[in-house]
């Protein structure tokens, strides 16, 4: 979870409990300005690399050199540098989305032990990606499928696709599995994401043909999430108290973003036709597709504001479950949450949780 939501404390705890912790890898120099001041004004991209290498090191230390993954958006200006920094820092897996990471095999060609996985949201994207990587003799180590109907943050599909119900998980997972098998890639797992909250959701994805599940929103509600930024208390409070459906807002990345409905995200709602550009500074030039000072807002500033408990300016990305009534929203330790995902929700005094 970016920007800087999944840090070393959360990623390492997930790995220690038998999962695979995945750090956010983009634009880390920006929220760490106070630490990396000497680089920031002139060399923001150096700061990003330093902060990422430092977070990988810390995660590895915290989880006893266990599995450490990194998620990098293809749409960031320094995608190539961050992928290389990750590989050099010894990450086990690079997951890349928000754009098709067509060039990733060449970028990390000197690091055959670094696993690589693209994120896809449609069968077409899966076919394009796999064919391209196979032409470079580098099959994916996994395919991450993100449902455009449930995932938090940027979506790999249009608003029309979302409204029309295109690319449903059953269809994309099933078709992609068949396609991989036909290519002789039976061993390449599909990791399904978007809307998994309970054990039963994991089982549903597995029954559709996935071999694993990626979860984000429920892990935001852990004690370990956001520790590097004081516990991101407001973010968690908004997740817990939210009783409105999540909304799709327009991101300067050129993709719809799923977020908690707040005055800020509603101003940029996808279905609002009256959106005007907001003049702003461009402190970091983070996204390739962004029109910088002419874009509707600075996404890096507003995502960082969310880490800093700033309700007015924060952009709080969230999966669709966060807007569903009746979803269990306790703050748990990662150990407790992983236990519940293995064995189901506990039976509480006098009340049985039906949503296991
Ligand atoms: C706060 C937040 C930040 C996210 N940031 C990223 C990101 O930087 N890159 C990415 O590929 N996906 C990102 N996602 C999407 C998640 O990685 C994940 O695939 C998706 O949210 C899964 O659905 P769930 O939240 O219902 O579990 C983010 C999700 C959330 C909630």
Identify the notable features of this structure and list them briefly.
356 residues; alpha/beta; TIM Barrel; 7-stranded parallel beta sheet; 3-stranded antiparallel beta sheet; 12 strands; globular
Enter the CATH topology name of the largest domain.
TIM Barrel
State the major sheet: 7 strands, parallel
Give me the secondary-structure category.
alpha/beta
Instruction: List each distinct ligand once.
Output: flavin mononucleotide
**What count of helical segments does DSSP give?**
14
Distance between the termini: 24 Å
Q: Give the spatial strand order of the biggest sheet.
A: 1-2-3-4-5-7-8
- Mean pLDDT equals 92
Shape: globular
User: Which stretches of 5+ consecutive residues score pLDDT under 50?
Assistant: 349-356
> Would you state the CATH class of the largest domain?
Alpha Beta
Number of domains: 2
What is the helix/strand order?
Answer: HEHHEHEHEHEEHHEHEHHEEHHHEE
Helical content band = 25-40%
Radius of gyration: 19 Å
Report the strand count: 12
